[in-house]
Specification:
The protein has 296 residues and is of the alpha/beta class. Helix content is 46%, strand content 14%. The structure holds nicotinamide-adenine-dinucleotide.
Length: 296
């Protein structure tokens, strides 16, 4: 395959292990299988793998409905994703391991130390972390030169952006191969140095926190703040609706982390956000956030 030609030391990516089959993991499995890779999907919770496979099927069915794919395409993609019951089974023979487990350094380190031992030496090890330090996670693997961040966006099969985050020890070969693979997936890579919040969250969180402060201060209603950014700045979606979709708890966690890491007041989570999270107003997933989602 041509996508990794000219990248000395980098493998041709044919087999992918996806560790974690939740929101991001099943999407990553789908897009990798969609370009012909054999995908082994693992989750500590076997039910999550089943739900992940059902999600992939539903996404592909939607594609058929929209005339973007045929039932044969769907079946071929599904046939390339297999459920496995251990990290080592997933990583064995993989050219690329993508971890999409919950956002905890300890947990990710544990997952990688297991995958590191089972994956072939040629394999690239990638984390889908949205905020953690690539350098710190890379400490759990024997060769950090092959470690990188591949930050996909939700929903993975639709969103074009992937941040390719290189750490201090990531080799050029790994970086180039990761960029080529992202392009092969039909996505747009943005190459970012390992730093808190990478490029997207660092800017996105500032906007989100400031918008929440504006609601708190009564500057304007949530709908109007969103409309200002949508119509005035051509953002496809305002920062408060986006916060509802991502989850207020998720954004609070990222803001707290960035506030601590970057020492800037711009990231300090507003009291309103903390209160809403404490009250269980988590956005779309809980039916209520800055908007009412209870009608579906
Ligand atoms: N949800 C998003 O919008 C989004 C966007 C970009 C990046 N991310 C990042 O992707 C990662 C996964 O997020 P998500 O939203 O898919 O979470 P999720 O909770 O939907 O899925 C995580 C999955 O990991 C599984 N898991 C737990 N422990 C595991 C282990 N030891 N080994 C393997 N699997 C394990 C869980 O059972 C769960 O199914 C996080 O690092 C998150 O920050 C999330």
């Amino acid at each position: 395959m041509s996508e990794t030609k000219g990248t000395p030391g980098a493998p041709e990516i044919r087999r992918v292990a996806v560790l974690g089959a939740g929101t991001m993991g099943n999407g990553i499995a789908q897009v990798c299988a969609g370009v012909g890779c054999e995908v082994a999907l693992y989750d500590v919770d076997e039910g999550a793998v089943e739900r992940g496979l059902a999600r992939i099927r539903a996404n592909l069915d939607k594609g058929i409905e929209l005339g973007k794919a045929t039932p044969a395409d769907r079946d071929a993609v599904l046939a390339r994703v297999s459920a496995v019951t251990s990290i080592s089974d997933a990583a064995e023979g993989a050219d690329l391991v993508v971890e999409a487990a919950p956002e905890s350094l300890e947990l990710k380190a544990k997952v990688f130390s297991e995958a590191d031992g089972a994956a072939p030496e040629r394999a690239i090890l990638a984390t889908n972390t949205s905020s953690l330090s690539i350098a710190k996670i890379a400490r759990s693997v024997s060769n950090p030169a092959r470690f990188i961040g591949l930050h996909f966006f939700n929903p993975v099969h639709i969103m074009k952006l992937v941040e390719v985050v290189w750490g201090p020890d990531t080799s050029d070969a790994t970086r180039l191969a990761a960029v080529a693979f992202v392009r092969r997936l039909g996505k747009e890579p943005v190459v970012v140095k390992d730093s808190p919040g990478f490029a997207s969250s660092r800017l996105g969180i500032v906007l989100g926190m400031e918008a929440i402060r504006m609601v708190e201060e009564g500057v304007a209603a949530a709908e109007d703040i969103d409309r200002a950014m949508e119509l005035g700045y051509r953002h496809p979606m305002g920062p408060l609706k986006l916060t509802d979709l991502v989850g207020l708890d998720v954004r609070l966690g990222i803001a707290e982390y960035l506030h601590g890491a970057l020492h800037s007041e711009a990231f300090r989570p507003p009291e309103l956000l903390k209160r809403m999270v404490a009250e269980g107003k988590l956005g779309k997933k809980s039916g209520r956030g800055f908007y009412d989602w209870s009608e579906g």
